[in-house]
Amino acid sequence: MTDQKLKLLARYPRERTRLLSLLHELQRANPNNYLTGEDLRLVADYLNLPLSEVHDAATFYSLFSLKPRGKHVIRLCKSPPCHLAGAWSLLAALERELGITVGETTPDGLFTLETTSCLGVCGVAPAMMIDEEVYGRLTPDRLREILASYRGEA
Ligand code: FES
Predict the structure, then answer these.
(1) What is the pLDDT of residues 38-63, one digit of tens each?
(2) Most exposed among 19, 98, 121, 142, judged by the fewest C-beta atoms under 10 Å?
(3) Ligand 1 center to residue 123 CA distance, Å?
(4) Domains of the chain by start residue, with CATH
C-alpha cells in the first residue's frame, strides 16, 4: 500500500501548495475514508514539511478525518441559512433514518454522519454533501430517496 501511495504522491509537484490535494488523495485511497499516521508522515516527507504542519492541516479541515469513517460521508450544513431553512429537522430525520447520531458510522460501514459549515450553496438551502456530491432543497422525502440510491449501490 505504501508503494501505491507513493505513486499517488508522485503525480504532484513537491510544492507546499499541494498539501491539501495530497491529503485528499491519500484519504480517498484508504478504504475507511480517513488519514493514517503513516499517510501524514508520507506527505510530510514528500513535501519536506514538518509533520506537525501536515497534522495541523489534517485536523483543521473538516473534510479530513484521522479516524476510520464509513464508505460515504454525509455532511449536513448547519450554518444559519440552512438552519433557517430547516436543517435541524433534517438532521433529526437523517439520524432516525440511519440509526446513528452526528459523528457516528452506521454498523454496515456505509455512512458516517457529520455536520459542516456553509457549503457555498445557500441558494438551495437546506443542503448537504455526500462525499463530493452536493444536494440542495432537501426535504425528509428527498433525503430518503438520496440515501436509497447510495444503499442501492452497496
Ligand atoms: S448555509 Fe448551508 S450552504 Fe450556505
Answers:
(1) 999 999 999 999 999 999 999 998 88
(2) 142
(3) 8
(4) 2-60 (no CATH), 72-153 (3.40.30.10)
